[in-house]
Specification:
By secondary structure, the chain is of the alpha/beta class. 39% of the residues lie in helices and 16% in strands. The chain has 11 helices and 9 strands. Strands 1-9-8-3-7-4-6-5-2 form a 9-stranded mixed beta sheet, with helices on both faces. The relative contact order is 0.20. The protein binds adenosine-5'-triphosphate and magnesium ion. The site of magnesium ion has 5 residues, from α4.
């Protein structure tokens, strides 16, 4: 039995409730033809450089692409249906989807990027990928928008409209909300009521928009718990053979009952994660987690 199955069985027994459903293994994305949007929003169209993204391990290698595209197709389907109310009632706030994990390096950002590209191929949806891991803005770096104003700038300034910092990409129906300029109060800003307002505004601005939020690890930071409160769907990414069972339980406990949680078992590249524990370990002490 896999780690996830064992975890779910135990969780189900201990809660006497319905455990979240495991999804499949990860990976993602057929390459759509680049096309510039008809109207350029906020003065810039971000090119999606697939070879560079492959080189930085944010897209699968060409040899794995086909399998991974297929897997992400399966992963996205229930998420899109829940968000848009296709074949089932739409979930409350279902078009706000948070990518979460218990620990660093489990594959949240990889999953976010690949899921976003896969979802952007859907008809009648527009995908907004939000970089809410402001301590490690890997989404922003992956798309080359790390120096652009973004989420943190909007959270700092009540006057700033969040739509003014969204950037379209040359992938049709995919736009990015960069993390923005970092500050000492980034954690507090993300956990603030203003963040909840901004998320609600993002969702309300366009009924066809699905907001994918890449986030920091649940067990080692406090702000991701606040982010989870705004999301109608949570994708909990589990590193295959990596994330300890206890960490999965603890993350699920933190998310609490009544949340729509999907589990994705991801094949992580363990070799590339050195140093991450130290990085977040600093914050873990304050959060009494990890
Ligand atoms: N399915 C996969 N196939 C290949 N490589 C992967 C896969 N998932 C993750 N990786 C690689 O593993 C590393 C960690 O993944 P990623 O950065 O997505 O994790 P994370 O959960 O976002 O970590 P952090 O919490 O530190 O931001 C990255 O180098 C990524 O490219
Ligand atoms: Mg990440």
């Amino acid at each position: 039995m896999s780690l996830v199955e064992q975890a779910l069985k135990k969780l189900q027994a201990s809660r006497g409730g319905v455990a979240p459903q495991p999804e499949t293994r990860t990976t993602a994305v057929r390459a759509p033809e680049p096309a510039r949007p008809a109207v350029v929003r906020n003065g810039r169209v971000v090119p999606v450089d697939r070879p560079a993204m492959r080189a930085s391990h944010m897209l699968p290698s060409t040899s794995e692409e086909r399998r991974i595209v297929q897997e992400f197709r399966q992963i996205k389907r229930p998420l899109v249906d829940n968000a848009m109310g296709r074949g089932r009632p739409a979930l409350p706030n279902g078009h706000i989807i948070m990518l979460a994990s218990a620990l660093p390096g489990d594959g949240k950002t990889f999953t976010s990027v690949n899921l976003a590209l896969s979802m952007a191929l859907e008809k009648d949806v527009r995908i907004l990928l939000v970089d809410a891991d402001v301590a490690k803005p890997h989404i922003s770096r992956t798309f080359g928008v790390q120096d652009e104003p973004g989420l943190l700038d909007v959270l700092r300034s009540e006057q700033m409209d969040v739509e003014s910092v969204i950037l379209d990409t040359d992938v049709p129906n995919l736009s990015i909300l960069p993390a923005g300029r970092h500050s000492e109060t980034a954690t507090e800003l993300l956990a603030s009521g203003r963040m909840a307002d901004v998320t609600a505004r993002l969702a309300a601005a366009d009924p066809q928009r699905i907001v994918l939020v890449d986030s920091p690890p649940l067990l080692l930071t406090t702000e991701s718990r606040a982010l989870a409160a705004s999301a109608g769907q949570i994708v909990l990414v589990i590193g295959a053979g990596k994330t300890p069972q206890k960490a999965v339980f603890d993350a699920l406990d933190l998310l609490g009952d009544g949340k729509n949680i999907s589990l994705v078992l991801n094949q992580c590249d363990e070799g590339s994660q050195q140093g991450y524990y130290n990085y977040y370990g600093h914050q873990a002490e304050g959060a009494k987690a990890g």
